[in-house]
Amino acid sequence: MIAYIKGILASVDPKGIVLENQGIGYRMMMPMRMESFPKIGQEMKVFTHMHVREDDVSLFGFRTQEELEAFELLISVSGIGPKVGLSILSTLTVYELKIALMSEDVKTISSAPGLGPKGARKLILELKDKLVLDEFEDNGSKPQTAGLSEGENDAVLMTIEGLVSLGYSRTEAAVAVKKVENAQSYEPEELLKKALKNIMI
Q1: For the region Domain III, what residue ranges are annotated (predicted)?
Q2: In the listed set 98, 131, 164, which residue is the last one of a domain according to the structure?
Q3: CATH number, domain at 93?
Q4: What would the pLDDT profile of 71-98 be if each residue is shown by its tens digit?
Q5: Cα separation of 190 and 201, whole Å?
Q6: What are the C-alpha distances in Å from 201 to residues 93, 176, 193, 195, 196?
Q7: CB neighbour list of residue 42: distance below 8 Å, 6 or more residues apart
Q8: Using H for helix, E for strand and C for coil, what is the string for the chain?
Q9: Residue 42 is part of which domain span?
């Protein structure tokens, strides 16, 4: 019905924002990753999802089309409502969520408030096969984690497994390695050092 709204950011609170467009203030709930918000009074574009129940009509907003699609995929799972969907996207970026689902990382997914290990396993079971590897492309790079893509060199896989053995989740490990420029050109020991620096930032 409403694909997106472009307007002036009027206010931000823990539950979402008010976006003013032509004298109308649209209140919408959003994933609260504050680094993604402009300053009050600046223009922003928000992709929207209208959720209709018998006793309530709510508007949900997202900074990107990809984030909106991830939200709609999450709430398509029985038992996962919009509040839990927002909680997940407030805890994990879309990229981190996709890595976690594909690598069956229950620990990372269940870190979202309102979603326990049982819910995380259900998400993995129902959504893993719906994700296409091409959807993971981020600035031309696919996630570098065991079992997620073919052709990764031994150094990358060994580094990820090394980080997991140190107690980091597979998602944290994959994201840390991905941040290393030209990761596949390093020996495992050097790559591990660089990836650890990324985790500690």
Answers
A1: 152-201
A2: 131
A3: 1.10.150.20
A4: 999 999 998 999 999 999 999 988 888 8
A5: 17
A6: 17, 10, 13, 10, 9
A7: 8, 9
A8: CCCEEEEEEEEEECCEEEEEECCEEEEEECCCCHHHCCCCCCEEEEEEEEEEECCEEEEEEECCHHHHHHHHHHCCCCCCCHHHHHHHHHHCCHHHHHHHHHCCCHHHHCCCCCCCHHHHHHHHHHHHHHCCHHHHCECCECCCCCCCCCCCCHHHHHHHHHHHHCCCCHHHHHHHHHCCCCHHHCCHHHHHHHHHHHHHC
A9: 4-63
Nearest Cα neighbor of 180 from 162, 148, 155 is 155
* pLDDT, tens digit (0-9, with 9 covering 90-100), for 53-74: 878 889 999 999 999 999 999 9
| 167 and 195 part of one domain | yes
Q: Residues 91, 49: contact at Cβ < 8 Å? A: no
Looking at 41, 63, 85, the residue that finishes a domain is 63
pTM score above 0.85: no
**CATH number reported for the structural domain that contains residue 15 in this entry:** 2.40.50.140
